[in-house]
Specification:
42% strand, mainly beta, 19-stranded antiparallel β-sheet, 2 helices
Length: 325
């Protein structure tokens, strides 16, 4: 049934990797675009108004002008078994995929690559009487961040920059494909350090950024020429209850890096999992403050660095039943 007003419950987001930067693939045949699961989609274009104050025109304000369009923003997506690999490809490039011979595949994504694929993203409201879709082209994934906790579903925020945005009254793909949703949950999260499970962890966070920057050249359509990648960085925090585990304090005292692994697993014999592995992580010394009679929590803001032996700063392994991305 057609609707007069748009709601978030009736919205959808489609995405596809582009062959040519800034050019939306033709999905008229169906099955080209993927319908992605999301909790929030703030990716879009905006043209702010500027004022041109001319004298001799009286006291009343004159016509404003439109600035160049900025197309950017973020989308909140589930950290799930299949769909998260699509976003990891956008962040890190094509994975190296290995067939395990049992119906599962290991997809290994590595930081520091030079070529990041661009996306076309369509967000819209297909149930409106007059359908409305915003088509965003040339989207480059800039960063991913998520929190780790004891309970709840696992979700991540993806931020990026796009080249252009147009409003359309017809979808690019009337029959998009979708990954079957199966989420990772916080009660299956883990934080390992120096090869072992870190004890007494009460909270954590993770962030990876490509430090992207839009190339804002002068051109008659107001679009950017592209997106340049800067220095890739992985960082985050871990909060632990002060106790007998000396893994962190030993690394701080020696001022040496340790290996760190952040990830999720699923119950079952398939071995489905998602792991972010950093071979060299540095931890700062923090002030130990006693605030009361209860337990003492310490937050350490860590930073990862390039490992010359491994040849990377970070590797992400997703084990699932998807053959390729």
């Amino acid at each position: 049934m057609a609707k007069l007003r748009a709601t978030g419950a009736d919205s959808r987001t489609l995405a596809v990797f582009e062959t040519t930067y800034g050019t939306a693939p033709d999905g008229s045949g169906g099955g080209v675009y993927r319908q992605v699961s999301f909790a929030r989609n703030g990716i879009g274009g905006e043209k702010p108004l500027g004022n041109d104050s001319l004298l001799g025109q009286g006291r009343d304000g004159q016509d404003p002008y439109f600035e160049a369009e900025n197309v950017n923003g973020g989308i909140s997506v589930p950290i799930d078994l299949r769909g998260i690999g699509f976003w990891l490809k956008g962040l890190l490039g094509d994975p190296a995929t290995a067939d395990n011979g049992d119906g599962t595949y290991d997809h290994v994504f590595t930081s520091g690559g030079d070529d990041l694929p661009s996306m076309t993203i369509e967000k819209g409201h297909p149930k409106l009487t007059t359908q409305r879709f915003e088509l965003i082209t040339g989207f480059i994934c800039g960063s991913i961040s998520f929190d780790l906790a004891r309970t709840g579903p696992a979700s991540a925020s993806i931020e990026g920059i796009a080249q252009g945005s147009t409003i359309q009254t017809a979808t690019k793909d009337s029959a998009p494909v979708a990954y079957a949703l199966r989420r990772f949950f916080q009660n299956r999260a883990s934080i390992k350090m120096a090869g072992g499970q870190l004890a007494n962890v009460t909270a954590g966070s993770f962030n990876f950024t490509n430090n992207i920057e839009g190339v804002e050249t002068i051109r008659d359509d107001g679009k950017i020429d592209g997106v340049d990648t800067g220095e890739a960085r992985a960082s985050g925090s871990v909060t632990v209850r002060l106790g007998s585990d000396t893994t962190i304090s030993d690394a701080i005292s020696a001022e040496t890096p340790v290996s760190m692994e952040v990830g999720y697993s699923m119950p079952g014999a398939e071995g489905f999992k998602l792991t972010f592995v950093m071979p060299r992580v540095f931890l700062p010394k923090v002030k130990e403050s006693i605030e009361g009679p209860g337990g003492i929590d310490q937050q350490y803001d860590w930073q990862a660095a390039f490992d010359s032996v491994a040849g990377h700063m970070m590797q992400v392994t997703l084990t699932n039943d998807v053959e390729e991305y």
